[in-house]
Amino acid sequence: MRQAPRDGQGIPRGPCWQRLLLLWLLGPLLWLQARHVRRITPRLPEPPGQRAGSAGQGSLIRLLVAGDSGAAGVGAPSQEQALCGQLVQRLSQHHRVEWCVLAVNGLDSPGLHQLLQDTPHAAFDVVVLSMGANDATALCAPLQWARWQSRLAELIALRFGPALLMHSAVPPMHACLALPQPLRWFMGRWAQQMNQSLAALLIEEEGRSMHWHPSTTTMAGMAADGIHLSPEGYAAWAEGLSQHILAAQVAVRQRTDLGQLGAQARPYFHQSH
Hints:
Blueprint: H1 16-40, E1 52-55, E2 60-67, H2 69-72, H3 83-91, E3 96-103, H4 109-117, E4 126-130, H5 133-137, H6 142-159, E5 164-168, H7 183-202, E6 208-211, H8 216-220, H9 231-257
Parallel strand pairs: 2-3, 2-4, 4-5, 5-6
Antiparallel strand pairs: 1-3
């Protein structure tokens, strides 16, 4: 059974009344700070480059990276240096990777749900979701957000049929230096409670996993706006994701060797012909 890890800052998971009380007490100040941040923060474009392709040799992984500005790679100068590009670089050292990016800067969970509904059916083995920062800034309640992720998972299963759906946790907003205090502390607390709500729902789920951002994600580097990641930050993120995906591949291979897969199980990866 997977346990939901706690944040390195020790941010607790508080009940709803605590969030509402903090929002009532700090609301006017937080609103003014958020408005100021929006006014002074430059809006970075999505990086140019291919959003689909193939790389590497060996057994096949069909990879979809979907979601918000993180999935789109905002903050990187090119798609090669963004999240998907750096993830493909790592996976293609071991596999042939057919990959696709389906992401739009500014998307929240309902927006991504609509985007996925409008996307033609396709087959993917692994889907990586980057979703939550815009839901957090809109103050989507943590449990409500976790339920939205389940709705997204149901739609992804229907349209893409992945063996592995990896939810990338809401970024560590408490480490976002572009946000002044106490807004940074408040958003970090809100984001952590969103992550913990999702982790609790995933404990009994098969085929869905959660990737928690390592502390090095933001320490590695931030983009010019102080909100999105630099290529170094995306590299740290992609490294953790690649290890998670490759570990899943090894686990499936071991079960196969032991003859424990069963008739209804399907492999995460395909052998090239």
